[in-house]
Amino acid sequence: MLARVPRERSLTVACVLAFGEPDEGFFPDTLLAQFGAVARARGCDVAMLRVYYDGRDPARDAEISARLTRWLDARRADLVVVDRIVDPEPLRAQRTVYVSRGESFDPIDGVGFVLGAHAGMTRTGTRRTPTIDALLVAFGALLDALAEGRDPLTVEGVARVEGDRLVEGSPLPPFEGARAPYRAETAWEVIARGPSPPVVRKTLFGNVGCPFAADPLENPHYARVRLPVENTVARLGCAFCDLGGDYEKRPDAEVIAHLVEQAHFWSTHAPAVTELVLADQHATRYLARLLMAAHEAGVRPMRWLFAARVDTLVRERARVEAAIEAARATGQSVELYLAGFEAFSDDELGRYNKGVTVREQLAAVGAMRALARTNPGVFDYARVRGHSLILWNPWTRPTDLQTSLDTIRAHGLGELFHEMGRNRLRLYGDLPIAYAAERDGALRDTWEDGDTGAGRRKGYNPERPWRFLDARTRLAYTLAQRLRERLGHETEVGQLRAIARYTAALDASSLDVNAHLRDILAGLDDLRAVFDRLCNAHAQGERGRVVRFTGACNNRCDACSNADSWLPDDRDAVLARVREARRGGLPVVLGGREPTIHGAFLDAVRAARGDDGRAVSVVTNGRRFVYEPFARASLAAGLRAASVKLFATDAETADAITRSPGAHAQSLGGVRAIVKLGLRAVELRAPVYATNLADLARYADVTRSLGASQVRVEVALDAVGLARLGDTVRAIEALATRCREVGVALMAAPLTAGTTAFERVYFPV
Q1: What DSSP assignment string belongs to 12-43?
Q2: Which CATH number is 63's domain given?
Q3: Given 145, 165, 191, which residue is the final one in a domain?
């Protein structure tokens, strides 16, 4: 029994929202803002706090944690309310209630009570997702119980955490009756390092749950899986998600009216807010009507962010188009910010019980791109890169990674995802996929050395420890994290492809993970040292601003990171990127997929040149310059430098890399043509492949014989392979030696930049 709060004072309530990193933007503060309003309406003394951890620096995070502890100690709150926990330590001395929106739940360290852990059963036999209204009613009852000194377990929907178990009272009842007017707290204190991140986004709550209700037990991947009969299993839908099989589906008119009420509140009370996120898994069916209703109600123009399954997007494209037209008519915009792709392997999609195929996913991407291309400024899908990808799970094999990554590269899907190599399955005990992991021996009592799971740092509920069933995948996952730490995310697709290929070739039965990890990281450090030395020695001249082309190429190189992400590539889009590049006053570099075969290339050169005579260069395979009229036209348009990719010094090797017979001869001819025409700043670019290592030093002599000004070496890890890092170091050192001998300048594209980040490649001199 808890002590009764003295009548002479009101309850003190602190609502704390913790972010694992400063740039997190999709964890809604509107939920706690509503809880704060409920507390204030009951006469409570309410404090609202956002906490931004660093997410990368443990020392900075320790500082943030200490500041939060001091803040909590100073307030001595009767109740601390949280809906996510990044660091449990500051909460240990507090009376803390964790608000669960129906998420899979195991006891959380630092939490005393849980509100909404379970909301009963649906008619289909899966777990019910609680509504926001039901949670708010239960929270008010909890405050009343605390004020009266009653045990919170007397409140329906409240559970108590004791050690490692959840002691439940009664489930959260469904919401009944009239909804109260929308209220939310708007004043927040902030704990952060440096300036507080701006809050431009608010979440609006529509229907809870998800309409997708496929039964995983009918999926061959779940043969011999036996689920318990108790009501704690969220059975239907995607096997890793707790939303499926129970979509609220209130009448559209009711949902629209409530969403408009929320939007109007934030439009009025939060002038900095420009984006509204619809928390509804099937908002497409009423989105057009919602936009019109919001406009008519006086909601100022906003960007409306919505989620959709990929098959829903294709099936309901007409509804999305109607929403786009409504947005255009009312001065608003819409963005598909979240689609759950998870993988681009049909085997992996089957394990997730996604109910879609890779073919359907690619059709959805095509639809997204077409809508964005025809509705610029009104519809977007890749601005926030919030789409879901789960590359890693207990069953993932290196070949599964290869399949997904090859599809990502082939279709330029890198534009959709952020930090794809870190995205792994969070395994919760009350979901079907956890029982499949138990069947196959993937569950563990504790994490393997060096592993901590995927969710805790982000504030997700604690997951069940699990292991990779294929030792090669454990190595692959560890390598992915280590390489990304060293090289960043600009070349992440290439990094992951190199890792997948390397580990697929290993023998899983006798694998020494630590030995391979040690050898590869040592080789990578040696390679980086060589590149850093070359860059430091020759980083002279002006930097350029890149204009990327992402369309066609007359070569078919496998390790082409220019294909990793996609941009609109019509004439207007290219010229718009040229105008943007010119704003910085720097030289303009035309690069990416082959620029010279684009119909707007000459126009792009002229636009980049401009009235001020801006220096313009191109990164190219040079093949089209073999045609003298085109070469002359390019120089006349204003081209002043060229970096020509030569994939080997002999035709057989080069044509095998480009998978384009005759390409090498054309590239050589193109270099000769532009040199003959008087282009002085011409460099040979040497992309390093496993197959051209032996002859890399010959680039120095070829550069001199062609009359080019310098040679630039660049390495993509999936081109050389992780097994050849030492050979690559030696080949580059041999090239450097030969360049000194023949008097040819050697430069290097930074290893972390790969072949696409031209902003970090110096303008040829």
Answers
A1: EEEEEEEESSTT---S-SHHHHHHHHHHHHTT
A2: 3.40.50.2300
A3: 191
Q: Which structure tokens are listed for 592?
A: 């990416």
On whether both 169 and 219 belong to a single domain, the answer is no
Residue 692 C-alpha from the chain's centroid: 34
pLDDT digits (tens, 9 = 90+) for 675-712: 999 998 899 999 999 999 999 999 999 999 999 989 99
Beta-bridge partners for 303: 275, 333
Q: Count structural domains, the chain.
A: 3
Is pLDDT of 468 > 70? yes
Each residue of 560-599: pLDDT tens digit? 888 888 888 899 999 999 999 999 888 999 998 999 999 9
**CA count, 13 A, side-chain hemisphere, 408:** 30
Whether residue 654 is found in the same domain as residue 733: yes
CB distance 499 to 723 below 8 Å: no
Note whether 140 and 38 are within 8 A (CB): yes
- Banded model confidence at residue 125, pLDDT cuts 50, 70, 90: low
Looking at residue 611, the DSSP 8-state letter turns out to be T
Helix-helix angle 317-330:358-374, to 10 degrees:
20
Considering the domain architecture, whether residues 217 and 187 belong to the same structural domain is answered as: no
The last residue of one of the domains, among 345, 362, 390, is 390
Judgement on whether residues 131 and 265 belong to the same structural domain of the protein? no
pLDDT over threshold 50, residue 754: no
Helices 30-41, 132-148: inter-axial angle, 10-degree rounding: 40
| 593 and 737 share one domain | yes
* Whether residue 688 sits in one domain with residue 545: yes
CB 202 within 8 A of CB 29: yes
Numbers of helices and strands, H then E, in the chain: 22, 22
Q: What SS3 string covers 406-420?
A: HHHHHCCEHHHCCCH
Q: How far apart are CA 717 and CA 689, in angstroms?
A: 9
Q: Is residue 401 part of a domain?
A: no
- For 254, counting Cβ atoms within 10 Å of its Cβ (0-12 exposed, 13-18 middle, 19+ buried), the class is exposed
Distance between CA atoms of 225 and 210, rounded to whole angstroms? 23
* Tokens of residue 698, six digits: 């010959």
Maximum Cα–Cα distance across the chain = 93
**Do 186 and 205 sit in the same domain of this protein?**
no
333's enclosing H/E stretch is: strand 333-338
The pLDDT of residue 261: 98
What is the CA 244 to chain-centroid distance, rounded? 23
Cα 259 from Cα 179, distance rounded (Å): 13
Pairing of strands 616-620, 588-592: parallel
Same structural domain, 133 and 237 = no
Query: How many C-beta atoms lie closer than 10 Å to residue 81's C-beta?
Result: 27
Parent domain of 252: 201-390
